[in-house]
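Narrative of activities, Objective 1.

The group set out to show that a structural description can be obtained from nothing but a protein's sequence at a throughput compatible with the screening campaign. Below is one input-output pair from the validation batch, recorded exactly as produced.
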Amino acid sequence: MPPVLEMILLVLWLFLNINTYTCFPNYVSDDADQLIDPLLDYDRLDDAFDHSRNHTPRCELCDPELCPLALGCRAGVLLDACGCCKECGNLEGQACDPGERSVYYGRCGSGLSCRVDRRGPGPGGEQDEEEEGDEPLCVCTEQEPVCSSEGITYLNICQFREANFSNPQLKLKERGPCKTVPVIKVAPQNQVKGAGSSLVFLCEVFAFPMAQVEWTKEGHQDLLPGDDPHISVQSRGGPQRFELSSWLQIEGAEQGDSGTYRCVARNNLGSVSASATLEVLSHEELSAYLTASVSEMKEMLDYSQPRGEDQDYY
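Output recorded for this entry:
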């Protein structure tokens, strides 16, 4: 090999090694003495870092000038495991290291604690015990909702701080949810069904104070379900706090069930509504409808295919 080429390779090797080892300037793993060149043995490097999860890092002399910049920290800034470099705190829902040292995942940011998050009781009605292998997550220590200056409700103060990081003009208006006219988050959708089939219209509403949801059919004055045994209405809270999910269910749909159905949500601040149409077809009509829909879809796909230079676009 020519001497010039050997010199170039030597300089490149030194440059890569210097940059590799200065990436971790302030602490090393207990197993660091056993590591060989990380550029030549990735498997041993991965094993050493995985093993270090359960070991305390050995800190070296702190040199702040070698610390990387901590940028874009939506959950605030804290010191690393050796108390030398600043690093971003983990966000709500991210895996974390319990305790006061950042060994593997990192520590939680401002207003967050590291724990296994148990949202509710188990199948037997009792709180589930922590299972082996469950990873602790960052959980906001304050779960009270807050209202922003833009009239948006955040489920906790940690979510508000994240939003405020991206929008510094955002202010905290008050503790508790924003009082608002109902907002329909998921509106019922138009449907085409065959006679005898079952179907469900869904309406999800957010409001504070909580909203009351009612269903009506265009051309009829009475609220549904009335005394019709094949129509039922059910409601329950969720999926998010201050939301209400309501279903209108029709069993064994008949052609007379065709029409426009409306979901109406109201509280003491106002009301809002959304509607959807139902078309119940005979078996012959449904078959023709599906055939026409498939043909229309094929035409749309053919039209979206790229054309050659010799093909007409019209």
